[in-house]
Amino acid sequence: AQSVSQHNHHVILSEAASLELGCNYSYGGTVNLFWYVQYPGQHLQLLLKYFSGDPLVKGIKGFEAEFIKSKFSFNLRKPSVQWSDTAEYFCAVKGSNYQLIWGAGTKLIIKP
Amino acid sequence: SQTIHQWPATLVQPVGSPLSLECTVEGTSNPNLYWYRQAAGRGLQLLFYSVGIGQISSEVPQNLSASRPQDRQFILSSKKLLLSDSGFYLCAWEPGTKGGYTFGSGTRLTVV
Description:
The structure holds 2 protein chains of 2 kinds.
Chain A: E1 3-6, E2 10-14, E3 19-21, E4 23-26, E5 32-38, E6 45-50, E7 56-58, E8 64-68, E9 73-78, E10 87-94, E11 100-102, E12 106-111
Parallel strand pairs in A: 2-12
Antiparallel strand pairs in A: 1-4, 3-9, 5-6, 5-10, 7-8, 8-9, 10-11, 10-12
Chain B: E1 3-7, E2 10-13, E3 19-26, E4 32-39, E5 43-52, E6 55-58, E7 65-70, E8 73-78, E9 87-94, E10 102-103, E11 107-111
């Protein structure tokens, strides 16, 4: 069965620190990969997505993610976080059917 | 442009009462439609999805049902609410099998 694992449930960083949120999935076939963000009091928004091509994907607000097929990973990165990046981040994977498989989410808190 | 509307934003219902949450999409045709429940610390749980009018797939057997009476309308219902139905319900759509989801703003349901 497909599954998605996000390594950290809570991450606390200071402003200007670098960020990397881990995401690993289990699925042997072709996958589409997504990162979503939910800011406090707001609904889920698509941050970035990977379907094919360059495995390094650029998203909104300076985020990027790298698809490493051999490691079944799609980690989210940002070189310098801001207080406004405080949010919950979800990794999701879509395999051969319609269903998106979601990670449990990582709560990111940025200390000003 | 495409927009998704979900209402109501909050709802407090007594145990045993019926439920109807509505979701509509504008600016597109034949979208894939989804109902999710989001639980703190457990990510998103897919409840139902629909690839066309009258076509509903259920992912989790429970006290809820879904219907798609029109192409861009998706309804989540229950005949008798349970306390365990409390949660945050999200509607989402996508244009096909690719593209990523766009989420509605969600409904916070509290069953008392």
